[in-house]
Amino acid sequence: MTQGEQRREQPPSHGGGRDDGGPHGGGRGGDGGDWQRDVLRELGGGREAASGRPGEPALRLVHPAPPQPGPPQPATTGTAAAPRSAADAVGDADGGSGGRGGGGLSDPQVSGGPHISGPHISGAHISAPRESVPHISGPVPPARVSDVAAPGSPAAGAPDPERPASPAPSAPPAPPASPVAPGPDPRLPASPAPESSPTLDPRLLIALGRPLHGDPMTRRTGRALRKLTSSVARDVAEQTRIARELQQPVTTGRVVAVTSIRGGVGKSTVSALLGRTLNHYRHDLVLTMEADAALGTLPVRMGAEAVRWTCADLAPILTPSMRLTDVTGYLVPVSDGGWLLPASRGQVGAPLDMTTYRKVTLALRRYFAVTVVDCESLPGEVARTAMDTAHARVVVAPMTAEGVGATRQVLDWLARLPHSALAGTVVALVCGAPDTVLDDKAAAGHLRETGVTVVTVPYDRHLAGGGPIRTDLLAQTTQHAVLRLAAEVMGRAVRVR
After folding, report:
1. Does the global pTM surpass 0.85?
2. Cα 488–430–402 angle (5° rounding)?
3. What is each CA distance from 12 to 29, 53, 101, 182, 422, in whole angstroms?
4. What is the phi-psi region of residue 64: left when phi exceeds 0, alpha when psi lies from -120 to 50, beta otherwise?
5. Residue 450, H or E segment
6. pLDDT digit string, tens, across residues 145-171
7. Cβ-proximal residues to 141 (8 Å cutoff; 6+ apart), any chain
8. How many angstroms separate the CA atoms of 269 and 469, rounded?
9. What are phi and psi of 367, to 5 degrees?
């Protein structure tokens, strides 16, 4: 056998196949044809039709359909790998040697079939069935193909297009900020405000009747006739001198204390007359204060219809930062001018203590030029404190023998005080009855022996009837006595430094 014949009978070394038609054999089989070249021939533009040999698979060339418009596909988080077709498998085997020589054929298995190497044909596409990939919800790791969402399915974390996403629950609106409560005003009382109480029962006011004039009609008529024939120059000069005494300027608030040896002698009446007179003649503020809590009559005599705040109520409220308008809000305004601070609301209560009296009087001196204090009767503690600390003092004595004698003992006690309180004391000798058996001149002389000034206040029908005092109804002699008493007191109060 020649060398050429041996080469034709030797099986090809690059086919790797045998004539047994094994799975990896690239041999000719029973008819000796090369089916790989036939496949490549058919893929090469259809110049050579299929031979129709038995056992060879028939391949169809399918052109890709034009893209159809559709809904935009959501972007996926990973790269989706589509299944490989047979034509793609042929293009990937481009590195092997094709042609009639049959060399360089590889046989790795892809998706259960043989891998065919050959040139990549542009414009031709071999369709193959696609495997359906189940919808995967949740985050997709990019390394696993089985976890990648299929085309047309929503991406991981994207809302379902058929099911609109429900809006996220919004946080409940914050409640409106409540306004900051202001702090308590130090000028306001910490305890509830007391209730107002009438000074007199309304039924008693009706029964009081019409007030009387201090002078009878006959006396007033005779006085009017005398004015027609007499000179009034002397009266005008006296009133001018008294007015000058009452209007003396003061540097600090002055306190005038009024007391007596016992109750019922006219102490509150004299205090009301002094307060009304000083307020009428002076151009600054005058306060009339009651320091006798034992059912005193000063609010009634001053004409107050009701009372509310007392000395004990005002003591814990007063502070140095309070203004005059704050203080007067707790006081009772008097009808013809001035202010009133009562000690009780017409009820029996605890007496005023010395600490409360000192605190109230010292605090109110800053706002009022003159303070007239209606003290309790001697020898009470508050009365003795008031007599010792006041700038001027008035001791009210009744026009009786026992009353004058007790008043003399009080004056002797004042003379023994260290700062000589007797020099600033004036005695008001009050006649409470129209007919008296005691000589007023003798009684006044007995009291003057101690060195004090004595002013006699005659009987007055208007004052004796009780009730509110009206200065226009006072008798003329009473008006002169009150003016002189106020001038004497004011002169002594101003001289004290």
Report:
1. no
2. 120
3. 13, 22, 9, 109, 159
4. beta
5. none
6. 444 444 444 444 444 545 545 555 555
7. 78, 147
8. 8
9. -110, -20
